[in-house]
Design a protein that fits this description.
Elements (H helix, E strand, L loop, with lengths): L3 E7 H4 L8 E7 L4 E4 L19 H18 L7 E8 L5 H12 L5 E6 L10 E9 L2
Helix pairs in contact: 2-3
């Protein structure tokens, strides 16, 4: 199964003033396969739910994306099966750092993406939360 990416683009073209480099798409079409719905991933260890000791948006985003990658792999897939992400940040000033870091994990993948700036997340020290959906071929 190959996911069909509708109108893939890079954020460097759509947000040139923000120095971003995310491979995204306007839509993704899948057929068959196993859908993996991930809960919002936060900057904490999956096994212990202990927060990472950082208040840096880049370091927090790395941990969040590492968690997403690990969970997709545990389900039998790879990051190439990621079809959608929803990004929640608590400060719009962190947007570029969060998206640049996320972009390292989705290079060439082109998922669809929605980004929201929210007042707060479940823990005050969290700056970013990302949930994802993957479709793994049969």
């Amino acid at each position: 199964m190959e996911h069909h990416r509708i109108r893939p683009f890079n954020t460097a073209d759509t947000y040139p003033e923000q120095k971003l480099d995310n491979d995204l798409a306007q839509g993704v079409v899948t057929t068959g396969g196993k859908i993996v719905w991930l809960r919002g991933q936060c900057p904490q260890e999956l096994d212990t739910a202990v927060n990472i000791p950082s208040h840096d948006p880049v370091e927090q985003t790395h941990k969040v994306m590492q968690n997403i990658k690990q969970l997709i792999e545990e389900a039998g897939g790879t990051m190439e099966h990621l079809v959608k992400v929803v990004v929640y940040i608590t400060d719009v000033r962190h947007r570029e750092a969060v998206y640049r870091t996320m972009g390292e994990y989705i290079k060439g993948v082109h998922p669809v993406s929605t980004g929201l700036v929210v007042q707060a997340l479940a823990r005050p020290e969290w700056l970013v939360e990302i949930d994802g959906t993957a479709v793994i071929p049969d």
